[in-house]
C-alpha cells in the first residue's frame, strides 16, 4: 500500500514566521516561470480555441467515441477491483516475470519433459496453473455468452452526430 508523502513547509522569509498569500503566489509564479510551465500555459490559453477544435474533432470520430467509452469501462472495472488483491497479483506477476527472465538467461540446455512434469508436483505450480486455467475458462465462457456486456452497452454507434 502506498505511504503518505510528508511535506514540510519551507521557512518563511527572514523576519517572518510564515509566508503570506502574496509570498506564496510570488513563489508559485517564479516556479512556474523557471520550469517553463507558465510559458506553455500562456501559449495553450492563447490558442485555446484552436486546441479545443483539434481535441473535439478527434473525439467526434468513431475512434474517439470508442476511446472514451473504453476509458469509462476500464474506470468502472478498476473501481471494482480490490486494491490489496491487485497489489498481490502485480507483485506476484513481477516476481514471476523476473524468475522467468532469469531462467531464460541461463545458458544450459532446455529442461527435459520429465523435469517439466516434476514441476507439476509443486503446490505453487499447481495453484498458479489452476488460477490460469480458471481465468481462461471464465474468459471462454464470457466470450461465448450472448448476454449484454456488464460494464458498458456502448457500441460506438449511438446516433451521435457531428
From TrEMBL:
Which residues does the annotated region (Disordered) include? 140-162
Task: Please indicate which superkingdom the organism of origin belongs to.
Answer: Bacteria
The protein in question is named DUF1641 domain-containing protein
Provide the species name.
Answer: Rubricoccus marinus
Amino acid at each position: 500500500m502506498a505511504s503518505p508523502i510528508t511535506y514540510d513547509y519551507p521557512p518563511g522569509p527572514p523576519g517572518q514566521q510564515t509566508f503570506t498569500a502574496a509570498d506564496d503566489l510570488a513563489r508559485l509564479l517564479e516556479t512556474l516561470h523557471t520550469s517553463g510551465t507558465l510559458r506553455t500555459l500562456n501559449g495553450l490559453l492563447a490558442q485555446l480555441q484552436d486546441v479545443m477544435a483539434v481535441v473535439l474533432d478527434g473525439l467526434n470520430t468513431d475512434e474517439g467515441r470508442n476511446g472514451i467509452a473504453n476509458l469509462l469501462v476500464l474506470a468502472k472495472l478498476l473501481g471494482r477491483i480490490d486494491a490489496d488483491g491487485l497489489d498481490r497479483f502485480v507483485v506476484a506477476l513481477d516476481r514471476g516475470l523476473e524468475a522467468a527472465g532469469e531462467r531464460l538467461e541461463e545458458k544450459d540446455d532446455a529442461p527435459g519433459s520429465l523435469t517439466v512434469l516434476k514441476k507439476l508436483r509443486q503446490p505453487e505450480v499447481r495453484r498458479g496453473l489452476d488460477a490460469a486455467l480458471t481465468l481462461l475458462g471464465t474468459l471462454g465462457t464470457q466470450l461465448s455468452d450472448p448476454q449484454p456486456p456488464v460494464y458498458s452497452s456502448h457500441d460506438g454507434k449511438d446516433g451521435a452526430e457531428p
